[in-house]
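If you are new to this repository, start here. Below is one unmodified record pulled from the training split, so you can see the exact layout before writing a loader.
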Amino acid sequence: MRERGAGRVADRIWKDDGQIAAGVERCGSDPVTNGVRRFVHDWGHAMGVVVKQGSAIAAALQQVVANYELAELQAQQGFVPAPPGAVERASRSAGVPQTPNPLAPNPPAVAPPPEK
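And here is the target side for that same chain:
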C-alpha cells in the first residue's frame, strides 16, 4: 500500500535527517546548517504524522465500505424486485445494461383470485 511506502520515507527522513542535510555543512554557515537540519527534521516528523493520520482514515473508510456492502447484501436479500415497468422495458429494448436496485420497494401484496 502507498501509505506504508510513504511511512518508510517519512521515517527515514526523520531518523536520517543528519545524512540528508550533510552536504549543507560545506556552506560554512552555522545558522544555515542548523536551519536546514531543523527544517529536514521537522519535515520528516510532519510527514510521519500525515502518514499515521492517513492510515487511520484509510482504515476507517475500509470499515465504512464493509458496512455499506453488508447493508447492500442484506437489502438485496430482503427485497423482491418488482416487475419491470415502462422505463425498464424501454431500457431493455434500447440495450441499456440492467443493474439491480437494492433500494427498490417490495411489490405490493396482492390477494390471490378467489377460487371458483
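Two things worth knowing about this chain: The longest helix spans residues 30-78. The chain has four helices and no strands.
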